Amino acid sequence: MKGYQFEDTQGTFHLKKAENISYLYFPIAGEAGLKSSLTPNLGGDAKIDQNTFLLEPVSAENLVNNRNSRNFWCNVKGIGSWSLTGNAAEALSKKFTEMQDDSEVTAGFMWQKTTRESKKYQLRGEILSFIPVEKNVEVMLVTITNTGRMAQTVTPTAAIPLYGRSADNIRDHRHVTSLLHRIETTDIGVLVTPTLSFDERGHQVNHMTYYCVGWSGNGEKPVDFYPTAEDFVGEGGNFERPYAIVKNAEGVKAGTRIEGLEAVGGLHFSEVTLEPEEECSYLIFTGITEDIQEIRNLSKTYTTREMVLEELEKTKAYWQEKVNVAYHTGDSDFNQFMHWVSFQPILRRIYGCSFLPHHDYGKGGRGWRDLWQDCLALLIMNPDGVRQMLLDNFAGVRVDGSNATIIGSKQGEFVADRNHITRVWMDHGVWPMITTKFYIDQTGDLELLEKEAAYFKDKQIARGTRTDTLWDESYGCWQKTKRGVREEGTILEHLLLQNLTAFYEVGEHNNIRLRGADWNDALDMASEKGESVAFSNAYAGNLADIAELLEAYRKKTGKETVSLLAEIVSLLEDNPALYDSVEKKLHVLEEYLHACEHDTSGEKVEISIEKLTENLRHKSEWLMEHIRKNEWVKDSEESGWFNGYYDNHGRQVEGDTKTGVRMMLTGQVFPIMAGTATDEQIRQITKSADRYLYDEKVGGYRLNTDFGEVKTDLGRMFGFSYGDKENGAVFSHMAVMYANALYKRGFAKEGYKSLHALYRQSANFEVSRIYPGIPEYFNGRGRGMYHYLTGAASWYMLTVITEMFGVRGQVGDMILEPKLLKEQFDEEKKASLTLQFADKNWKITYLNREEKDYGEYQIADVTVDGEKINFVPKQHEAILPKNMIEKLSGNETHQIEVVLAQGNITL
């Protein structure tokens, strides 16, 4: 079928007969807490959190199987009953035939409109859905139009099943919790206020009311109501052919109270006669509140159709303003694709990683890794407040270098683990440094390193290997000193502890232990002897980056020392003989962990910045050289790549084995990104990746080759079908990071290949079957899975802006280093980027009049607001110093024009 089409430059798109595609869903949400998902037939759910679901919780399979979705019916006099959503037995029987209704979905940021037209009923129905930014209410604006030549009499009915309890009750006590329901009809709708809430917190008095209310566009209230599923469906009926609709049955009146049944927001309106082309409208509101008066206020706030449409425009404007980045290349569809990719980090901030149908794991919130990676996008689009967010986030680090893994509902609130399992992901120390460096480069705020934050504390100590028997909840969640004072350390100290403790926690091959898993959560069965060479590279890169920031900090502030926790001195021994010895490294780590396993000394020592910088560089260089020497593998074609892992038997995982070539993408990303891989090794890696991992049919670079076994000494991923999720799918996040690493090292064509393959697959609707944006992964059939809520969006956006367009910060200076390919420029030989940098708005336009490819051009001229400037020149980049930027006005969009001309770049 033909895919969606974009309508404007703001990401609005439409798709005909979208209901013929299974598993499609669309997010609408507000800032107050309500989060919904909508299918083309208005299936999906709505909730505030795990314990507060307005509609029945759904996972992906429910989208194609559930009958009890949102619906709006018209009983057409003399003909029958028609569903404006297509959720009717009659409509489903005609699906995929010429008798199927004509339908179309149109959508933009946080709003969806479905249109359906029936030849049999001579009616057109339109349902516009959105959630106002500051209200926990889902709005449906329903419009019915007579498309026939004769007058028709219809009786409209809204029918929305109200679930009204915790997701835990979908199976556990489903019937028993319905007995808690207290259902009431008012003059405008149906209210459900359960007496108690049964969930993992225990039996608690409930204060939430779940409701469905509505009125016609001219203010007419429902005549009666169908408030229970039992009476609405009727004996032998179902939600696709409900007795009440088929019989146009009389409902109950306002003021009716019913206890102990499943509820429906059934609003039965009076019949209306429509002349040809005449229309009528209905305003339906479903929501959650603790204040009943809020429900009554809706009738004043949204009295008419016009008032609802006015609120819709405010909602559209709000979300469009959040995405203050715009892209212009020669591919207009790619520009719009990037508009949606840039919106996805905002969706993940709201939904976490749990509250859309494919994300049917977990109970809400974001994990540690998500927190830091989402900040990357925020630093580009909405940098205000990110500094405080970083400071608050660092308080989740433990003094042993590990961290809380779950973020609470409030900023700076942490939980040890969602399921109270003691577990350490060995990559968690990597991400705060990556985000902090990006923040400092974008802002020049080196002083952040000297700001202080607390340390998280619970019973888990010694990097998750022991329990603190002296700790209980009365101690609190913050690390204390022996004097009982809360321990606080600089951001630099937090970064050092995360990266130094990891450096010493090694396996028998002297790479950092895998522990519970790394970025790939499914490598979770090698906790004793597993090692992650992949992320050992990342830590090596971090150590070098900390050293670089320290040098810049010393130069800017003039300070020669930094104050650090006294216990950290043991981790700062600088001795190659120590680094070579697994036993000695583990001894150093154990000494440190023992010294601070309950309380810290509270003592600080002054450390020379010069010596600390040298120390960190030595550790980084040793680790990189160790990996180059021991982890490079080759195949029979004399092509090579890096081994990324050791399994729980202590065996090297990758290479040309008896059972075939074993290669993993993650193990190539971080040696390239960190600088471990030489340029020649990168050339070999890209050849190997193209040979063994690249599959154009499913979106580009797979995460791994087929190992052909259920490898229970490495991770559960090998139990998955090959080509799905972590086992050999095209996993967008790592494919994007592969591109990012290649761009960083000057391999732009190779990096573009990975990015473009993901875009092409995402946009190939006939195969990917997803709306605009990037999914978590593409399965073995090329279908996009786990859409919207993926860290790949932040990294894709970051890579396009800072590497492809080459606009990035360097300790506050603006760097312009385009790596655009010739094919990416438009017909006028231009490509442009609009964004914020240093609290100012910019439009940066590259002119490639000579039509040169990357590697063939260099920057010839730079003008700012029409005036040619003396930029700091390098062979392939221009630097706009921070002091120059600060002199410019902050009230306008500054125009930068960069002329590219002949000039070879040495790679």
Strand order of the largest sheet: 1-2-9-10-11-12-23-18-15-14-20
Largest sheet: 11 strands, antiparallel
How widely separated are the two ends?
44 Å
User: Which spans have pLDDT < 50 for at least 5 consecutive residues?
Assistant: none
Please tally the β strands and state the result. Answer: 52
The amount of helix comes to 25-40%
CATH architecture of the largest domain: Distorted Sandwich
Organism: Roseburia inulinivorans DSM 16841
Domain Glycosyl hydrolase 94 catalytic: 318-459, 613-804
Pfam family, one: GH94_b-supersand
InterPro entries: 6-hairpin_glycosidase_sf, 6hp_glycosidase-like_sf, Gal_mutarotase_sf_dom, GH65_N, GH94_catalytic, GH94_Enzymes, Glyco_hydrolase_94_b-supersand
Give a nutshell description of this structure.
The protein is of the alpha+beta class. The protein is built from 23 helices and 52 strands. The strands form 15 sheets. An eleven-stranded antiparallel sheet has the order 1-2-9-10-11-12-23-18-15-14-20, with helices on one face. Strands 7, 8, 13, 19, 21 and 22 form a six-stranded antiparallel sheet that branches.
